[in-house]
């Protein structure tokens, strides 16, 4: 049995970091590789691919596959941990990635059955009850692309929202996120950021229930390994 996926998750959580932050500090550790392992898309990567990550974590590559590191000696520390703590300290917790169905039924974070959550992402300290949604469709492209993760803060007040804020609402048991537009006469509606998307305007009426404000987003970008080019004659 391979412990690879759980070990990756454990080590990232142990050192309060995530693939995106880690690659920025250590470019040789490709976040796309870790992301695919975390999501079960890559189950048997080559040892050489994981060598930079294993070196950073202070473990053997083979241990990532063969041992449950959460039960091993956790006294080892990352050499660079002190120098990176200021970059990762804001992401010491994780937030659930909800489905759009769960968002449509959302009342509060405590009401969510966390055993049903399959994916978690870093949570900023100032966002206690935030959750993520994975963008579907092109209604808000190119600002938000399909596959992006938006961070939603349910603790903000609708009365504090201003024209131009991106908000999540439930309408007829379905959740959606759009730009809030407030006209000079206080007429309010939701507008898709993609001008070509139809319908572009959604009335903000009694059928709409405010869920929260979109306060951040994450976009995972694929980055291929650079290979030397050999001319073929």
Short précis:
The protein contains seven helices and nine strands. With 233 residues, it is an alpha+beta fold.
Would you give an account of this structure?
The protein has seven helices and nine strands. The chain has helices at residues 4-14, 19-25, 31-38, 47-57, 61-66, 81-88, 100-104; strands at 93-98, 120-123, 131-134, 149-153, 166-171, 174-182, 188-191, 201-203, 208-218. A nine-stranded mixed sheet has the order 2-1-3-4-9-5-6-7-8. A hairpin with a 5-residue loop joins β6 and β7.
Give the SSE layout.
Elements: H1 4-14, H2 19-25, H3 31-38, H4 47-57, H5 61-66, H6 81-88, E1 93-98, H7 100-104, E2 120-123, E3 131-134, E4 149-153, E5 166-171, E6 174-182, E7 188-191, E8 201-203, E9 208-218
Parallel strand pairs: 1-3
Antiparallel strand pairs: 1-2, 3-4, 4-9, 5-6, 5-9, 6-7, 7-8
Q: Features of this protein?
A:
233 residues; 7 helices; alpha+beta; 434 Repressor (Amino-terminal Domain); 9 strands; single chain; Umud Fragment, subunit A; 9-stranded mixed β-sheet; 24% helix; 2 domains
User: How is the main sheet built?
Assistant: 9 strands, mixed
Q: Fill in the CATH topology of the largest domain.
A: Umud Fragment, subunit A
At CATH level 2, the architecture of the largest domain is Ribbon
Q: Can you tell me the overall shape? A: elongated
What ranges have pLDDT less than 50 throughout 5 or more consecutive residues? Answer: 73-92
Mean pLDDT: 79
CATH class categorisation of the largest domain:
Mainly Beta
End-to-end CA span = 45 Å
Number of helices: 7
Fraction in beta strands:
15-25%
Determine the CATH superfamily of the largest domain: Umud Fragment, subunit A
Q: Could you tell me the radius of gyration in angstroms?
A: 21 Å
User: How many beta-strand elements?
Assistant: 9
| Number of structural units classed as domains | 2
**Structural class by secondary-structure content:** alpha+beta
Instruction: Give helix and strand order, one letter per element, not per position.
Output: HHHHHHEHEEEEEEEE
- Which percent range fits the helix content? 10-25%
Strand line-up across the major sheet: 2-1-3-4-9-5-6-7-8
